[in-house]
Design brief:
The protein has helices spanning 17-20, 25-32, 46-76, 81-130. With 132 residues, the protein is an all-alpha fold. It holds the Pfam family PIRT.
């Protein structure tokens, strides 16, 4: 019987096969997915669905109004006028960007909700006809 030649460096050993393959790979993939499962039919409240875009909208509106206040201060105050003129438009643009982001996010969520409802309906039809 022939002994295979040893590698010059003992640290180059390959890891055991049980470390490479885990038995929970499928469940880990399902748990780590960000989308909700089609099989869960728990209804969520409107706040749970729309809380993130509402928060983005409100923060954007607050930043936008803060930018308007800073710009109006640059008109009335004579001291430090350059600071107000530089930071005011920055807050205006940031607030407007967040407002638009939140306003676009809401129709996207509505479209996803409709697709999810259609998918659940089709899934129930499939299970009704194929389980007979």
């Amino acid at each position: 019987m022939e002994i295979p030649p040893k590698s010059p460096d003992e640290s180059e050993k390959s890891p055991p096969s049980r470390e490479l393959i885990t038995s929970r790979t499928g469940s880990t993939l399902c748990m780590s997915s960000r989308s909700e499962s089609v099989w869960t039919s728990t209804s969520r409240s409107k706040w749970e669905i729309y809380h993130k875009p509402v928060i983005v909208l409100s923060v954007g509106a607050a930043i936008f109004l803060f930018g308007m206040v800073i710009i109006s201060l640059s008109c009335f105050l004579k001291d430090e006028k350059n600071i107000y003129k530089m930071s005011g438009p920055a807050f205006l643009s940031l607030g407007l960007m967040l407002l638009v982001y939140g306003l676009v996010w809401i129709p996207i969520i509505r479209k996803k909700q409709k697709q999810r409802q259609k998918s659940q309906f089709l899934q129930s039809l499939k299970s009704f006809f194929f389980n007979r």
